[in-house]
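B., you asked whether I could sanity-check this one before it goes into the benchmark set. Here's the sequence:
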Amino acid sequence: MINLTINGLNASVEDGSTVLEASQHLGFPIPTLCHMEGLEPYGACRLCLVEIGKAPNAKLVSSCTYPAQEGLVVRTASRRVLKARRMVIELLLASCPQSKVIQDIASAHGVNQQRFKQEHEDCILCGLCVRMCKEQMMAGAIGFRGRGENRTLGTPFDAKSEECRFCGGCMYVCPACQLRCTFNEPEKAICGGCQNLTPPCVEEEKFDDMMCYMSPCVACEIDK
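And here's what the prediction gave me:
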């Protein structure tokens, strides 16, 4: 067993667990987009960022790929973590504002604006479809091509794949394929229909970490 501390709580988890699995086991919510149970962790979306270590050497890591280690100190909802997550959400919204999945994530985390030029991409390179095709459907019909800003996804040489069985698994898991109507202006880019309350304990700088993990926070609702 691995002994670590998550949000001030001492915990023991099985050897081989990730920080994401350990946090979820204890009931601490961490948002994910490219992570899916049954698929190999990829760490592409960076939504699951957490803070590990102690100041001034604390750093942000993706919890879905970071292994639980003996004596590790983890903070899943510090002010630094929440700020970084919201920036990631804004960037995802700029890339694919029509995605229902990303819209819902934005609403759930109190992001009501995005300040970047909207690109309306049809792929955010989360890798879910590639892993689903390879690991669950045992086909490997699609994959990544190129690097950096030239990185794309598709079949080798854009030729029709003989491995594809038209199962639809890639579309089932794709966040960009689950569309929602939205405005084109960045200041109106977020629906907000499912928006939850933001935690005033952190937003109003009363504390450096979120004080509860209820969704929504009943105490915060009463306080407001």
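One thing to flag: The chain has one domain: 2-117+183-223. Otherwise nothing jumped out at me.
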